[in-house]
């Protein structure tokens, strides 16, 4: 099957917004070509196993790609309208948001897409792409992510910081809420770390389907996956709440998320560009939260707060 590939030009800080928008329409997930990721990896002394042609020639420009059916003009128009509205209302520079299109062979693309992913390790947590064989070591926690779901895989700094904090803070008696679950990687991790119950929520049906699929192939049986905005239901409460969402959404959660947090609970916040870290932190401090710790990886940051 052929697809129409959409390549949208944006900025580093705008890429997550564009990804979120495009993921609502893209049948085969989204991908990002960002020179900042190349620079950060080269500084660390590592190399890419696979790199899209041309990404090293980018300057401030970031390319976000998504995939729709060939000839689906109504979806293409809707994406263009949403991008136009996003640009009008966004408080920071999103770049040109120019869209370039080309028809691609879906089967060949999927095989090439797989080359982006390898086994990833974070302390004792190991993320394994579903098409790869891996022999688990005795002290490891393995999470299998299937290849047909293009959400968080653990490679991105925002996801990796959440995984590290979950490993540090989740206790066996905890109920963990994963808000904006995407692939389900964080909720699945919490379950495998011993959480008593995991509740994953997302407002994107594709995300809840991905979470359900990945939870099933990982043998996770203590998870509830809900298509809803968590803040609409204060009967759902957790000892740990983890949110890997863009900073503006996290700020909007600050006044209400305490209703979903049990006494002495903590929240883990990620998806925060470094230049918005103080804004997010202050929003929660103003709403009665206490700062616990933070970490920074590249251009991204994560926060832990308690109530």
Please render the helix and strand layout as text.
Elements: E1 2-10, H1 15-23, E2 31-34, H2 35-43, E3 62-69, H3 73-89, E4 99-105, H4 106-114, E5 120-122, E6 125-129, E7 141-145, H5 157-169, E8 175-179, H6 185-192, E9 197-202, H7 205-217, E10 223-227, E11 238-244, H8 247-253, E12 261-273, H9 277-285, E13 290-297, E14 300-306
Parallel strand pairs: 6-7, 8-9, 8-11, 9-10, 11-12
Antiparallel strand pairs: 1-3, 1-4, 2-3, 5-6, 12-14, 13-14
Total of domains: 2
Give, in order, the helices and strands: EHEHEHEHEEEHEHEHEEHEHEE
Distance from first to last alpha carbon: 51 Å
The CATH superfamily of the largest domain is: Vaccinia Virus protein VP39
CATH architecture of the largest domain: 3-Layer(aba) Sandwich
Indicate the proportion of strand residues: 25-35%
Unreliable runs, pLDDT <50, ≥5 residues? Answer: 37-59
According to CATH, the fold-level topology of the largest domain is: Rossmann fold
The global form is globular
Instruction: Give the CATH class of the largest domain.
Output: Alpha Beta
Structural class: alpha/beta
Number of DSSP helices?
9
Counting DSSP E segments of at least 2 residues, the number of strands comes to: 14
Q: What percentage of residues falls in helices of 4 or more residues? A: 25-40%
Q: Main beta sheet, described?
A: 7 strands, mixed
Radius of gyration, CA atoms, in whole angstroms: 19 Å
Tell me what the structure shows.
This protein has 307 residues and is an alpha/beta fold. The protein has two domains: 2-114, Alpha-Beta Plaits (2-Layer Sandwich); 159-306, Rossmann fold (3-Layer(aba) Sandwich). The chain has nine helices and 14 strands. The strands form three sheets. Strands 10-9-8-11-12-14-13 form a seven-stranded mixed sheet, with helices on both faces. A four-stranded antiparallel sheet has the order 2-3-1-4. Helix 8 runs parallel beside helix 9.
